[in-house]
Amino acid sequence: MTDLRQAAxxxxxxxxxxxxxxxxxxxxxxxxxxxxxxxNVENVAYPEGTCAEAGAIAAMIAAGETSxxxxxxxxxxxxxxxxxxxxRQKLAEFGKGDVAVTMxxxxxxxxxxxxxxLLPGAFDPSFLGG
Length: 130
Ligand SMILES: O=c1ccn([C@H]2C[C@H](O)[C@@H](CO)O2)c(=O)[nH]1
Ligand SMILES: [Zn+2]
What we know:
Elements: H1 3-12, E1 24-30, E2 35-39, H2 52-62, E3 68-75, H3 85-94, E4 95-105, E5 110-114, H4 115-118
Parallel strand pairs: 3-4
Antiparallel strand pairs: 1-2, 1-3, 4-5
The chain binds 2'-deoxyuridine (DUR) and zinc ion.
Active site: 53
Binding site for substrate: 40-46
Cofactor: Zn(2+)
């Protein structure tokens, strides 16, 4: 098992998902090589819940890094979990170049897509120029 998959599997155990029962773990490798982890954190006020990918990105930013080279997301679903729309935009903000996102099941199935494929036509800083 790769270190990234192991990190995602491990942090998924800490997911707080009493409402959906759907635990997700995410791990990203910062450009420095350090691996950052995140899990979903739900709330009784449902829209306040946060995704595993967002948690991993927040951990990276808190540690002082701003880009990652690889991402891995794992869930207990029968098919590999695909990031929600909001997370695709978050991943696009910090993914370095054409970063691969591996989506996986606990059982071991994997699907790999680039961030560009996950979010074609992403809103990016070039639009801010007016
Ligand atoms: O890529 C995904 C998809 C879903 N979830 C979470 C959000 C919610 O807590 C639960 C069910 O949607 O799974 C993630 O963390 N990442
Ligand atoms: Zn999400």
